[in-house]
Design goal:
single chain, 237 residues, Rossmann fold, seven-stranded mixed sheet, 7 strands
Length: 237
């Protein structure tokens, strides 16, 4: 059994199943906060970028972060790449209704083998992707490769909080209640068993910063949101 191949196939199939209800599930599980987190990540990514930056949004899903980038800078030229056609179909419908959809190109592809030349982008973004990669370091190295010198890599991720009481409340909500909300939105209990548990063995915020540094990202920092349950990691190339 090839565990990496199996995980890649599982993740792609799972997101294909939940694509129609994915946005509703996110809004329910985060009480609508996830959109604000994406805007915050977009601002970090575009801080100091050229007037019309070239941005690659990885695991773009239904396009929420790509649209947040357009909201922050309507001149941004964004490629939204995703492994799952069904997610991209949802993004395409959403972009048709958006003001800045012409500045966003959607593309099917794999973060571990990006179909772009070295230094093609001013910034790379992702939201809730890293813990689903079958090879985190390879994915990060691909991001480094396609980012120009001085460009930014930004990753928005769920992380485990440190405050003792809040950590226990978060554990109860994230592992017991949030999956029920996600499953109610999509009808897929299996997917929303996997998604919370994908955090269980994922890196801490400090450990992720160290892996990003090892992959070639410089001056890696992170900001914690929502009482330490969400982190935006960022660094330069």
């Amino acid at each position: 059994m090839n565990l990496k191949t199996d995980k890649r196939s599982y993740v792609r199939t799972m997101f294909a199943r939940i694509a129609p209800g994915y946005d509703l599930g996110n809004r329910l599980m985060t009480f609508g906060q996830d959109q604000g987190w994406r805007v915050r990540a977009a601002r970090v990514a575009l801080d100091g970028a050229p007037a019309a930056p070239r941005v690659l949004d990885l695991a773009t899903g239904t396009g929420d972060l790509a649209l947040a980038l357009a909201q922050v800078n309507p001149q941004a030229r964004t490629v939204g790449l995703d492994l799952t056609y069904e997610m991209l179909a949802g993004a395409a419908g959403k972009l048709e209704r958006a003001d800045h959809h012409r500045a966003i190109q959607l593309l099917n592809g794999d973060t571990l083998d990006l179909p772009f030349p070295t230094g093609a982008f001013d910034a790379i973004t992702s939201a809730f992707m890293l813990r689903n990669l079958v090879d985190l370091e390879r994915g990060l190295k691909e991001m480094v490769r396609v980012t120009r010198p001085g460009g930014r890599i930004v990753a928005l991720e769920i992380t485990r909080p440190h405050l003792p009481l809040w950590r226990e409340l978060f554990r109860l909500y994230f592992y017991q209640i949030a999956p029920l909300l996600g499953a109610a939105a999509t009808g897929d209990f299996e997917a929303y068993h996997y998604l919370p548990n994908s955090l269980t063995y994922f890196l801490s915020a400090d450990e992720l910063a160290a892996v990003m540094t090892r992959a070639g990202v410089k001056d890696v920092r992170y900001v914690l949101l929502n009482l330490g349950t969400v982190a935006i990691h960022y660094g330069i190339i």
